Amino acid sequence: MRAAIVCIIVSFALLPIVATAQPTITIYTDADAYQSGDTIEVSLSAENLGEGMAVGVYVGLLTPDGGIYAVQWDGWSGSLEPWIPDIHVPARFSMDSTPFWWFDLPSSMPPIEEPGDYNFAVVLTLPGALHWVSELSLAPFTVDASPGSHCYINEQTGSDGNNGSEVSPWKTITHALNSVDASESDPVTIHVAAGTYSASTNGETFPLNMKSWVSLSGEDRDSTILNAENEAYHVICCENVMQLTIEGLTIAGGRADTKWPPDADCLGGGIYCSNCQGGDSLAIQNNRISGNSADSGGGICCRFSLPLIWNNIIEGNLADSSITAAGAGIFCTEYSSPTITDNKISDNSANFGGGISCLKGSSPTIEDNIIIGNSADFSGGAINCYDSPMILDNLISGNSAGAGGGIYCNGSATIQNNSISENTTTGHGGGIHCDWSDKSTIIDNMITSNSAVWFGHGGGIYCTEYSSSMIFGNAIIMNSASHKGGGVHCSQNSWPDILNNVIASNLAEDGGGIYCYGCPQVIGFNTITGNTASSDGGGIYCDSSVLPTIIDCIIWGNGDDLYHCSATYCCIEDNDAGEGNIHEDPIFVPGPFGDYYLDPSSLCINAGSRMTVDADLSDRTTQADGTPDTGTVDMGFHYPIP
Prior knowledge:
- The protein has 3 helices and 68 strands.
- By secondary structure, it is mainly beta.
């Protein structure tokens, strides 16, 4: 406090004290110490035992860095200005301690933010003359660190006999977790210095069993390494906890697989989450999770949990030690619906769901991730999902599986605005495999250069028995199948709607664009062009027993445009007969989102079977200048309006 008092006295050094009977004024705060989130109440009392007189009232705040701010009616001033320039104080005046100001911490003017020692000050002067007529009154108070405690770990310089402060850190995270107490009002962050934390380096014990309101924060994910050295069931275990963050770490060497006893829960080699509920229950962010293994959930397992999994690198994890092994990167089961966003999930390997697997009532939001180079022996190279996940705006590329090289779904997923490219299956569905009874919505995706090899069907999309997916607004381009359905394959007893897609430059033995063994309800408003079949049906191949409704499409330049099927209100190069069909070049031109817009002179414009509003395409366009389709609907694919 002495330094603060000196600074204020220096600031008022030019204000001489008048040698007359002096009034007094005193300033108070309602406490001696505060934390962020508190409110400071400031009061004044005054007394005048002499004659009545006019005074100016100065009220100031001295901050820990030596700055002085003057209270004004409308805020604060950085210069020395009176709060009240001129007021008459009558004789025999007395005012008890009266609150005048309330400041919520942190305060923006001035910034009462940093921990340290502060002073409020008040003095009376002659009006306009800066002559003191009272003694200076100070109200000292302290602002402590923000709520929440901090402790520090350093595997090189620390000791578990220290006090855990920044200058006297502990050695092991295990000791810190055993030592700290936390609550909702007083959370704890354990700061972990760069280094390797393992049994062989600093005597660390795994798993690290997290507590509610206790967060774990490494220096960064490249230099702060937690390595269980394949000798622990999990690296980090989060059971029945809430409101904590795990960040800035490499998490490696967890092994939750059949090495362990038969009754063990072989899930979550890197991080195991169970019964972590609530929107802010657990955040897993900015970590590298690699080199872990488990029966399921090599990197992360979520059971009955809703964590945020954000901005992690999840790579090189395994889930392959049992026939049902799933989710090498992330495994969601038993009603877990985490938010999985902005992660890079790569080079993980499982039997089901190399990158992500979700089942048993789990419907995560999977958004804005890069999911590349993952593999699954059976299904879902990138994502293997049941129930109703939201799969939005991801890059899904270079993954492989026995079925569904990119995505395998059996439920009612929403798959929207993704780039799904260069994925491979040795079975069916190079890009997407929709399995039994699937009712997924596949909308506005780029599905390109995927392949179904060996005797595979459905280079872009494969719909198996009893699936009734909605396939709308996609660009399904340059996919290939060694057998049937280069772009889309509809298997026996499947009834998808294939509406308003570009299906172009795909390749198969039969059905270069679309192969129908099952019967789509409608194939409408598609542009099907440049596809190739080495045997039959370059555009659309239909088994002789199925009769889909093919309407309002452009089917052009596929060699054999239609095989064993017919169409109406379509533009068909092959002169196939049908009500409303035309046979003139559609005249494609490039535009903002692709190469299959219609030239304004195209006869496909206003040539469809119904009004645009009835086709629900009024908010889309077939023309490169973005003119919305109106009146009679145009044939072929309708792009979003830029």
